[in-house]
Write a structure and sequence with these properties.
Elements: H1 2-12, H2 14-24, H3 28-45, H4 55-76, H5 95-111, H6 115-125, H7 130-137, H8 141-160
GO molecular function, one term: DNA binding
Domain RNA polymerase sigma factor 70 region 4 type: 104-151
Domain RNA polymerase sigma-70 region: 11-76
């Protein structure tokens, strides 16, 4: 029963896990490894899920904590990602190409943010309310607003540089 329930939750929320992996990993192999690690951590913590919070809140908390821990561990091992040279190139005028380049730029820009800022941006892009973001990340709603404003300023500065 517990395994079937867990698998159903994973199926229903697979997109959330993929987005967390994409936010914290640049290449496909690392994303797959992180995805597997998140699934393992979710399975380990599933028996202790008390169902007091929404399932999505619990999923985000476990996934983000796992991603941040994995990211810090890889940083200690000397793995570094550098910004692509394409960051400074003039975008193509084609709207589809421009959109794709904007998305790539956003991922590179978000990669320059701290772990906590990445989590906030990802949840914001998931259209979570500030209250939900606060609950998932474990800070106050006012702190989410302040951090979001600072993140927006950082991203604007990157865009103009």
């Amino acid at each position: 029963m517990q395994e079937a329930e867990f698998l159903e939750i994973l199926r229903a929320n697979q997109g959330v896990l993929v987005k967390v992996c994409t936010m914290y990993c640049a290449d496909a192999e690392t994303r797959r490894d992180l995805y597997q690690e998140i699934i393992l951590q979710l399975w380990r913590s599933f028996p202790t899920y008390r169902k007091e919070a929404k399932i999505s809140t619990w999923l985000y908390q476990v996934a983000l904590n796992t991603a941040i821990t994995d990211f810090r561990r890889s940083r200690k091992q000397g793995v570094r990602l550098e910004l692509s040279e394409q960051l400074g190139q003039i975008p193509d005028t084609s709207s589809a190409v421009e959109w794709q380049e904007n998305v790539q730029w956003l991922y590179r820009a978000v990669d320059t943010l701290s772990d906590a800022e990445k989590a906030i941006v990802m949840l914001y892009l998931e259209e979570k309310s500030y209250d939900e973001i606060a609950e998932i990340v474990g800070i106050t709603t006012g702190n989410v607003r302040v951090r979001m404003h600072r993140i927006q300023e950082k991203l604007r500065k990157l865009k103009t540089d």
